[in-house]
Amino acid sequence: MRVLIIHNRYRATGGEERAVADLEAMLARHGHTVARLQRASAGTERGRAARGMLTGGLEPGEVEAAARALEADVVHAHNLHPTLGFRALAAGRRAGARTVLHLHNYRLYCAIGVAWRDGAPCHQCHGHDTWPGVRHRCRGSLPEAAVYALGLRRQQDALLRQADRIVTVSQAQTDTLRRFGLSAQRATPLLNFLPDASFVAQADPGPGVHALAVGRLVPEKGFDTAIAAARAARVPLVVAGDGPDGPRLKALAAGAEVRFTGQITGQAVAALRAQASVVLAPSRWEEPCPYAVAEAMAAGVPVLASQRGGLPEMVGAEMTLPAGDVGAWAAALTTLHADPQARSRAARHALARARELFDETRYHARLMEVYGAGPSDGD
User: What share of the chain is helix, strand, coil (3-state, %, to 5)?
Assistant: First the structure.
């Protein structure tokens, strides 16, 4: 097939950028012709970004021209705000392509995408009611919050009309979006895949030198719970990542055996995983399908995760804990860190689930169904 991927990069690089790159490489590996049209929020002048949000996107002719040049069968869209919008999907259709809208978060309704505020999931914005985001100034400034609230409200119906199919990254995300107002029949859940080389041949737990937490340092990730639990369990903890919550987390970790690595490469993270007894994912937001969890499982490392979002779907309910319950996290961490047999069982469980859930070949087959190259599952 011929596939045009379109994406508006976020100001801070995250999992969606990884998903876009992995999708492009995977499609090429499976013999498809693929191109990417990408814009970026970083460096986009604020007035231009506002125009994009309020008018449904900028310069849709660029998308149509790219789709026609590729003779695209599919335009596969990821984040469209603020510069692409529903007009990019309409442009793909004019070029004769089938359109797929891939939702990695809750940005269809939530101006900041994570549907989280004040330490807990937030569902105040739903359907066409996006004004709570203005009251709470979720975008930081009042003018930007107002632009996003109005832009999201204006674009919702048009985006859904212009998308032939919608993909989410977990069933839990689909369920949450349904509570926000999305028709469940429109969405096909596809958990993020991992390339075959990501999977170890067999689970072989390492020495268990430390626990590990990986990700952007933001409050909704719940890394303060990981720090408090590691302190209570007297287990060394490594926190890999960077972000605005870093100074607060480092202050909370004072006096405990916690090391912050800052932003590091995938190879360096893999080296830390090889020494880890467990990876901690104590997210407070309804995180749909984080790569840090999938990669740890594929490497045969046990994962303890919060009972929110797609995390139970990924790790299994028996490996989940209440978000923010430091005592429960400390007890589970103590068990896995101190008991090699328990760790070995959990590692085998993690690898088996990873192979079942994140397999590239299975993902490709289901994606082809979404693209219309195989049996449909819900149109």
Answer: 45, 20, 35
